[in-house]
Design goal:
This protein is an all-alpha fold and about 230 residues long. It has two domains: about 80 residues, Tetratricopeptide repeat domain (Serine Threonine Protein Phosphatase 5, Tetratricopeptide repeat, Alpha Horseshoe), CATH 1.25.40.10; about 100 residues, Tetratricopeptide repeat domain (Serine Threonine Protein Phosphatase 5, Tetratricopeptide repeat, Alpha Horseshoe). Helix content is about 70%, strand content about 0%. Helix 7 runs antiparallel to helix 8, helix 9 packs parallel to helix 11 and helix 10 packs antiparallel against helix 11.
């Protein structure tokens, strides 16, 4: 299945089987049903591929339409709902995106990326406790997920909990040393605690790798100003 923005170390999860009805269908009905389901899955896959291409081209509304139809055709495939959620979030429809992430998690509760992305949407709404629940769940499933570690730290930092946020950023960097966003967030957390030298070190490290990283440029200026006081 073509899953948008799947992490490299993720394994594509299996879709939950549909519930079996108590009435056993006759063999011809079973064959026709299986053929229909197979056709729907093929159509849904084609729609996801087309929707992915449209999304890459910035045609978000058209992509959303394709992903919605794919989810209708294959409603018990968690990836269909995940892709739709991602497209809806890019469309600015956070509430609808959250509903689709939750649907993906209903089908496959151990969907790391769905927990992580849903957590980010909740952070954007200031629902930090709910967001942290999903980040923790993502890390329970995939302890080596650097993105979930960094996002967990950011949710804590936004609440002013820098002491517990800093270890999250450090762990994200241990897992992924070139994770610039995590390093920037670590620098900001140090800055908030007036740990100027450590903040300077993190911002400088970012700019050595990415001289055009504007947030780190601003962080470096701010740290130097505080250092001069």
């Amino acid at each position: 299945m073509n899953r948008l923005q799947a992490k490299p170390d993720s394994n594509a999860p299996l879709a939950v089987a549909e519930k079996v009805t108590t009435r056993l269908p006759t063999q011809p009905d079973t064959v026709r049903t299986n053929e229909t389901e197979s056709d729907n899955i093929d159509k849904a896959t084609d729609l996801v591929n087309r929707g992915t291409d449209l999304l890459d081209k910035g045609k978000i509304d058209e992509a959303v339409a394709d992903f919605k139809e794919a989810a209708r055709l294959s409603p018990e495939d968690e990836d269909m709902h995940y892709n739709l959620a991602l497209a809806l979030s890019r469309q600015g429809k956070r509430e609808a995106a959250q509903a689709e992430y939750l649907e993906a998690l209903r089908i496959y509760p151990d969907y790391t990326e769905a927990h992580n992305n849903l957590g980010n949407l909740l952070v954007a709404e200031g629902k930090f406790d709910d967001a942290i629940t999903h980040f923790k769940e993502a890390l329970k499933i995939s302890p080596d997920n650097a993105s979930a570690q960094s996002n967990f730290g950011k949710a804590l930092a936004l609440q002013g909990k820098f002491t517990v946020a800093i270890p999250c950023f450090r762990e994200a960097l241990r897992l992924k040393p070139d994770y610039l966003e995590a390093r920037y967030n670590l620098g900001r957390a140090y800055l908030a605690q007036k740990r100027i030298d450590e903040a300077l070190s993190e911002f400088t490290a970012i700019l050595q790798r990415r001289p055009d990283f504007a947030p780190a440029q601003r962080g470096l200026i701010e740290a130097r100003q505080l250092q001069g006081k």
